[in-house]
Amino acid sequence: MSKKVYLGMIGDIMHPGLINIINEGAKYGDVMIGLFTDKAIATHRRLPYMTYEQRREVIANIKGVSEIVPQEEWSYVPNLKKYKPDFIIHGDDWKTGSEQELRTEVFEVMKELGGEVIEIPYTQGINSSSLAKELGAIGTTPEVRMKSLRRLIAAKPIVRIMEVHDGLSGLIVENMEVKGGLSTKSFDGMWSSSLTDSTSKGKPDIEAVDLTTRMQDLTNILECTTKPIIYDGDTGGKPEHFVFTVRTLERNGISAIIIEDKIGLKKNSLFGTDAIQTQDTIENFCHKIKMGKAAQVTKDFMIIARVESLIAGKPMEDALERAYAYVEAGADGIMIHSRNKSGDDIKEFCLTFRKRHANVPIVVVPTTYNQIKEEELHSWGINIVIYANHMLRAAYPAMVKCAETILENERSLEANPLCMSIKDILELIPGTK
Known about the structure:
- The protein has 17 helices and 15 strands.
- The protein has helices spanning 16-26, 38-42, 52-60, 77-83, 100-113, 128-138, 142-155, 167-175, 194-200, 211-224, 239-251, 282-295, 316-328, 344-356, 374-379, 390-409, 422-428, and strands at 4-9, 30-36, 65-71, 87-91, 116-120, 159-164, 177-180, 183-186, 189-192, 229-232, 256-260, 302-307, 333-336, 362-364, 384-387.
């Protein structure tokens, strides 16, 4: 009976190094590929370009692969204990860096199983991380970008979305990473906010801003980034206008639009109850959702309904009644908004909503209750957290301080510590090095 050789693999970018390790493994027995699922990958690094099914299809056609099984966790231990291979094979690059802990776990469990760890020299000149960056530099397609939000919701406990308002802020969100142990934290996608978009132009946040005008700014972001984008659609306008908006956003690869169930002159909800417009009727808003869903070409684009009841001072029952009705009308998710600094009303809403809808995505913007961490929000049943205006809010005081410093000193020397270096700018902007 042939021996079993286990090889863990992401398989998003195939290169000679991976073919080499498969060939080496085949010398010891039948090669079982433990193919990392999106969920296993997304909690530690960026979601792969190809889906699990696409990666599986590619690897299944490689000579020397005998079997493919899903690896649901970043750790090899669960699959090693389940399949009890005679060998596990890995490149020796995991002797240093962030994967040392994984290596230690593997040696311990294989010793328990009476198996052996095979380490082969890492293929020189091949670096998966570098290849991934090159792939990112090539860009993405509208279809791949649009689909990625649903994939992220399915794969991650919390999808982390950051506001962007131009190409530069988009590049920051695209590339920002914070490493810690085996995981790397990053933003999963971007929020195109009507407030920050208009504020960056020095104009008031009014819904009358033409979609064509906002699409010009969105295009600047789309051209230099690859992550999914959620669009702030305000109320969505008249149902006929909303249909046009949905088609335009979907065609350009935007993943989702969020529309709020209120009517009247556009005013920001955070200003207080006196600034809140009258909520739209449930029937009217459901009609708008249905028209938007009917206008979609694909099943991947998402229409998310924002419930304003709690901000408008209405009872929890009203918020839940509306959320249930919007889901019934076809909404792909619910955004619940509140000015309550404790977040208690959001928690109550989510826990109650989850009793009826276990899988409908819940979106929050925790600007006022920002003391609550993502892990706790996830425990309430929340899927997406949007940091809705922080990039612009951080940029303004920095620019004011820089301008003030130059005026005070009549030169720019003292402003240097406040400014990004030209070298950093060249490294950030693709094609300017």
